[in-house]
Amino acid sequence: MNEQSLDWNDYRLVLAVGRAGSLNGAAKSLRVSHPTVFRQINAIERKLGVRLFERARDGYSPTAAGEDVIAAAAELETRIEAVERRLAGRDERPSGTVRVTTTDTLLFGLLPPVFAAFRRAHPQIVLEVVADNAVYNLSRREADVALRPSGGPPDNLVGRKIANIAFAVYRPSRWRARDGDDLSAHDWVVPDDSLSHLNSTRWLARHGYDRRAAYRANSLLSLRDAAAQGLGFAVLPCYLGDRTPGLARVGEPVEELRNELWLLTHPDLRRVARVRAFMDGMREAMLELKPVLEGTA
């Protein structure tokens, strides 16, 4: 096998198939078509004169040769990304694109006015925002900055805690309820299994409220809207529930559901002018929104 005959695009393709375990998954990550990946992986194998993957109904699994190429590709990727971050760190111009990842609830519930104010202050910086509850890999430059709830930042990222995020129980405002009422006597709208990692999902299960589920969804925005339409009680972040017509808070924020909001980037990017400008602007803006985030506004 002559690995020297491969270029970076070949390595990148093999690595994507190895990580995804399927052509569809690789095509999605590379943003190309399934037939393109199929043709290219076959061409790479012909070029090397060796089979890199075993084909099966449930996906592609690497051969011993494939594992060697995947390991070499992963090492190359790490080196290339490190060089790119270092080069980006020398960029002192407050212009260009900042790719931001955040959650759907923050984006649709709080951030548009903040982003608009930032753009007015920095018209040369273009914001590219990804609303996704999945955690993007800042080391691979999938995003430059993450603004998201977390129990604490990963060791490979830097940033700071912006505020605490308060959560509370909300009811449809048309329903009558008083503090101290038995909440288990009411219908609830609850997260589905895809959100089982959330503190609120576990809290609902501990108290048995999920047994009265009248509606399940994989989005807190959907749960908010369902509760506002009268489908049941919901647990929501206060910055979302307090601002939604048709909802009324039941009692004070639930202390054990409190979360932290972090603003994070990779160490190699923190000195990039556009990233630094965005981080500074977000810190100031979110400090002003602390009462909203902490449910005291």
UniProtKB/TrEMBL annotation:
Example of a GO MF term: DNA-binding transcription factor activity
HTH lysR-type domain: residues covered: 6-63
Cited PROSITE patterns: HTH_LYSR
Keyword Transcription in annotation: yes
GO biological process: DNA-templated transcription
Pfam family, any one: LysR_substrate
Gene3D superfamilies reported for this sequence: 3.40.190.290, Winged helix-like DNA-binding domain superfamily/Winged helix DNA-binding domain
Keyword Coiled coil: yes
Keywords, alphabetical: Coiled coil, DNA-binding, Transcription, Transcription regulation
Superkingdom as given in the UniProt entry: Bacteria
Coiled-coil region list: 66-93
InterPro entries associated with the record: LysR-type_TF_proteobact-type, LysR_HTH_N, LysR_subst-bd, WH-like_DNA-bd_sf, WH_DNA-bd_sf
Family indicated by similarity: Belongs to the LysR transcriptional regulatory family.
Name of the protein: LysR family transcriptional regulator
Protein source organism: Luteimonas gilva
